[in-house]
Amino acid sequence: MDGADDLYSRIVTGLKILLPLGAIMLLSTIFLFARKPGEDPTIPYAEIEDIAREPRITDPYFAGIADDGSIIAIAADEVRPDPDRADGFEILRIRAEIDATDGSRIIVAAGQGRIDPRAQNAVLNGLVRVSSSSGYVMEATGLAADLRTGIVASDGPLEAQAPFGTLTAGSLRIGPGADDSGQQMVFEGGVRLIYDPN
Length: 198
Known about the structure:
This protein is α+β, with helices and mostly antiparallel strands. Helices cover about 20% and strands about 45% of the residues.
C-alpha cells in the first residue's frame, strides 16, 4: 500500500512541475506567432461612416418551402433596406432556384429587385433570365414571384428559346399545375412560335 501511495505522490509532484511548464510553452507560442506591432487591425473611419449611412448585407441567402412542397432559394450580391417600405428590401444581382416536387428545376437571374418578407413576394426588374431543366431559356423585362405558392409571372412580353424552336408571348406564368402534376409554364397573349424541326 505504501508503494502505491509513493507512486501517486511522485506523479502529483511531477505534474506540478510539467503542467506549469506546458502552460508557459503554450503562452510563448502565442506571443511568437502574434501579429507585428505595425499592423493596424482597425477599420478605416470612411468605411464605418459609409456602412452607417447605407446599411446593407452582402451575399445573403433566403430559402423556404412553398405550399406545394417546392423548395425556393434566393441568393444575391447585396441587400439594402427599401427606402419606400419599412419592412422591404432592395436586392442586387439576384439568383433564384425553384426545385419542384416532380424533380424539375427553374433558375432565375436578374440585375435588381425587391423582396417583401411580410407579403412573401419578390419583384425582379430589368432584364430577367429564366432557364428550366426542360430546356427553356427565356428573357423578360420583369418578373413577380409569390414565395408562398411558388408562382412566377412575367411583368410583360418575353422571348424564349425552347427545345423545339423559338417563341414570343405577351406573358408567362410558371406554377404548379391544377392536377398537381408538377410545375407548368403557361404562355399567353399573342403567342408566336417558330418551329425548328432540327
